[in-house]
Amino acid sequence: ALGRPPAAMKLRDAPSACPSLWRCLPCPPAELRLDLVLSSGQSFRWWESSPGAWTGVLGERVWTLRQDRDRLWYTVYGEEDEHEEEEQDGCSPKAAKLGGAETDRILRDYFQLDVGLSALYRAWEAADPLFRKVAEDFPGVRVLRQDPVECLLSFICTSNNHISRITAMIERLCQAFGPRLCCIDARPFHAFPSLSALTGTDAEARLRALGFGYRAKFVSGSARAIAEGLGAEGLLQLR
């Protein structure tokens, strides 16, 4: 029926939940530590949805990630469709239709998994005694390869700020300006806003109302400068 809200999908926090909807990549913790990387203040779209499981938005899709001794596990949730019923076990039928090769590629690119981190750690340890002292406590720390528009506008929000507050600001930004992707356990997830959404005549005022303060001018102004200059695709080509 028209106007009926879509049923919320259930969080899948482990491969045992809907195993057919999980995939994995070979990736030991020495190559990637989710807990260190996703909470480090590089990106502000991830939260630890249950112990060891991280849920967030990447590439206009909602993901849950977790890892074991030698694998990185992930599941991708389907987009909302108010006319599509959920399966009884809470698995969205649409989620299973996403191409595995493409989601593998997105995740490998995001974490730059084609860069061998263990070899770099060994080289850095040999060159720097200070790094050698801390490396054992901080293995698997990588630089995320993020969308440049999202990264730039997010880091404007970091000025005179801290991670928990930045995360809340980015969440409000996405809820107010970004399209809703899906709803999991009654929690809505939104994509990062498009440039056009952030360059409207009332965008700066709306951002100020959301608590962005002086940053509102720079978020909206930077979005406009990108849109009128290289554009999102042009900026992506510079990455």
From TrEMBL:
Q: What is its EC number?
A: 4.2.99.18
State whether keyword Lyase applies: yes
Query: Mind naming one GO cellular-component term on file for this protein?
Result: nucleus
What's one Pfam family the UniProt record gives for this protein? Answer: OGG_N
Which segments constitute the HhH-GPD domain? 154-227
A molecular function (GO) term: class I DNA-(apurinic or apyrimidinic site) endonuclease activity
Q: Which GO terms describe its biological process?
A: base-excision repair, AP site formation; nucleotide-excision repair
> Per the record, what are the reactions this protein catalyses?
2'-deoxyribonucleotide-(2'-deoxyribose 5'-phosphate)-2'-deoxyribonucleotide-DNA = a 3'-end 2'-deoxyribonucleotide-(2,3-dehydro-2,3-deoxyribose 5'-phosphate)-DNA + a 5'-end 5'-phospho-2'-deoxyribonucleoside-DNA + H(+)
Q: Which UniProt keywords apply?
A: DNA damage, DNA repair, Glycosidase, Hydrolase, Lyase
Residues covered by the 8-oxoguanine DNA glycosylase N-terminal domain: 25-152
Which chain regions cross the lipid bilayer? none
InterPro entries with a match to the protein in the record: DNA_glycosylase, HhH-GPD_domain, OGG_N, Oxidative_DNA_repair_enzyme
The entry assigns this protein to a family as follows: Belongs to the type-1 OGG1 family.
Q: Write the protein's name.
A: DNA-(apurinic or apyrimidinic site) lyase
